[in-house]
Amino acid sequence: MFSSVRSGSIRKPNGSFSVGCADYMWGSGENGGFARLFYPSNDPNQISNGWEKPLWLPNKKYGDGMVKYAKMPTWLLAKPFYWWLGKIRLDCTWNGSVHPLDETDNRKKFPCIIFSHGLGASRLVYSSIALELASYGYVVAVVEHRDESASATFYLKEGASSYQDRHWIKFRKVKATEDKFQIRNNQVWNI
User: What are the extents of the domains in the chain?
Assistant: First the structure.
């Protein structure tokens, strides 16, 4: 992932489609869901006409969680980690329009891929892969789990009036006295 970061943005995907990106949250509280969608777009992937390229790491809490997951001291490394990666932008259009399919296109729909991040990751970590797939005509939904397996995630508080009114869920470290298999297995099966 880091090898694809050049001059302030994650590398440009190779497919023939421009890529759009949006976050989608459904349900309420911890029982709801959260995903980042990457999809073929007909908007140019550039900052113009009010369109904006999204940040790869949109909040410091994601960086804190990744440093914590790596078992490195957050008090020492979280700020430099976010300083280094917090300005990286994705080469896609935030909330861009979906590419239309017409009679000249021989496909009837864009196939969908549901991508599940691994332990200690988030909907953000595999953005380079999701961008690449979307540029080749796939809709990619990168789910962010709220079972304390993500580096960090959030949901909007009940009756929230803005996107800023968030309740954060941090990555759960397993203590030496706990049964690691049982805890992680329960997360996988959402028990």
Answer: 2-188
48-102: per-residue pLDDT in tens? 455 578 888 888 888 888 888 888 887 777 777 778 778 888 889 898 888 887 7
Tokens of 65: 């969680």
Nearest partner of 41 among 112, 111, 92, judged by Cα: 92
CA 5 to chain CA centroid, Å, is: 16
Q: Helices in the chain by DSSP H: which ranges?
A: 60-69, 74-85, 127-135, 180-188
Q: Which amino acid is at 110?
A: F
**CATH class of segment(s) 2-188:** alpha beta
**Closest alpha carbon to 147 in 26, 27, 38, 34:** 34
- What pTM was computed for the model? 0.83
